[in-house]
Write a structure and sequence with these properties.
single chain; alpha/beta; Rossmann fold; 5 strands
């Protein structure tokens, strides 16, 4: 967990040998289900600037992203498609990320979930982890730590 109280989001250049353990990326390459085809991470956040920033960050790690500004559309998507990983914002107008996480458990219980929030709410991380989250981040977060959790959370190829 990263505990910042500012509500801004930034993407800095990352992915040097000094900032990220290379074994994380090597293991991801072995996880691809089809050679030269990357898994797509779903991101649900009502702030389109966060979706764009996370798209760039995930792309910098060689990942694809499908963004949803409406959590209900994501849940419909999850009913029709296998989602290898979802990143959920907590505070959204229609449904909170924690509600989406709970509903996703009934649709696709094996889908790994990472929760992020711009608010420093004591105990929110405990709720997310109790509901099965694999990571919890407060924005702004350390990009390399975030990417490491994302890459480790992606399912391994069988």
């Amino acid at each position: 967990m990263v505990g910042y109280t500012r509500a801004e989001f930034s993407v800095q250049p990352v992915l040097t040998e000094e900032t990220v353990d290379a074994s994380v990326f090597e293991s991801y390459e072995r996880r691809s289900l089809v050679p030269n085809r990357l898994q797509t991470v779903c991101v649900v956040d009502d702030d389109t600037s966060v979706l764009k920033a996370l798209g760039r960050l995930l792309s910098s790690a060689g990942l694809c992203m499908t963004g949803f500004s409406d959590p209900r559309l994501f849940l419909e998507h999850a009913k029709e498609h296998k989602v290898p990983l979802v990143i959920l914002d907590v505070w959204m107008p229609e449904l909170s990320g924690l509600e989406v996480q709970r509903l996703l458990q009934t649709i696709a219980p094996s889908t790994p979930v990472i929760i992020m929030t711009a608010r420093d709410d004591p105990g929110m991380d405990r709720i997310a982890f109790t509901q099965g989250a694999v990571g919890f981040f407060t924005k702004p977060f350390n990009d390399s730590a975030f990417l490491e959790v994302v890459l480790r959370a992606l399912p391994k190829a069988e």
